[in-house]
């Protein structure tokens, strides 16, 4: 290929690449993503007085992902609530543990009353 032709070929190839990229953006479609595995959700439902509601059926609950309804495969109530165990490795120097302490305080403050 001659020296005079190389810049033209490069410019043409580069122009085509830019044009194809722009056209691809105009005609792009959102991919359809199917959930391949069931998700496990923990929810807390209370009545107007804050008393847990344990006898809900799947027909009474709506779960959406991205605005689309999801199929509820199974639901079960837990009268005693969920048990949480928090283990913290305190072998690091204190300066590294302070952010973890702050996060744990915020976590426990966010739990419903009577669950700590």
What do these coordinates show?
By secondary structure, the chain is mainly alpha-helical. It has 2 domains: about 1-30; about 30-110, no CATH class. The chain has 2 helices and 2 strands. The chain has a two-stranded antiparallel ribbon with strand order 1-2. β1 and β2 form a beta hairpin. The longest helix has 22 residues, at about 5-25. The termini are far apart.
Summarize the structure.
The chain is mostly helical and 116 residues long.
Number of helices: 2
User: How far apart are the termini?
Assistant: 77 Å
Give the helix/strand class.
Answer: mainly alpha
On the 0 to 100 scale, the average pLDDT is 75
SSE layout and pairing:
Blueprint: H1 5-26, E1 64-65, E2 68-69, H2 94-109
Antiparallel strand pairs: 1-2
Features:
2 domains; 2 helices; mainly alpha; 116 residues
């Amino acid at each position: 290929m001659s020296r005079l032709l190389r810049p033209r070929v490069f410019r043409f190839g580069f122009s085509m690449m830019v044009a194809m990229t722009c056209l691809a953006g105009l005609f792009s479609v959102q991919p359809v993503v199917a959930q391949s595995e069931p998700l496990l959700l923990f929810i807390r439902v209370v009545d107007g007085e804050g008393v847990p509601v344990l006898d809900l059926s799947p027909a009474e609950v709506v779960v959406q992902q991205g605005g689309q309804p999801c199929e509820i495969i199974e639901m079960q109530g837990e009268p005693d609530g969920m048990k949480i165990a928090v283990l913290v490795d305190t072998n690091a120097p204190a300066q590294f543990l302070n952010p973890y302490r702050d996060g744990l305080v915020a976590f426990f403050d966010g739990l419903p009353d009577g669950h700590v």
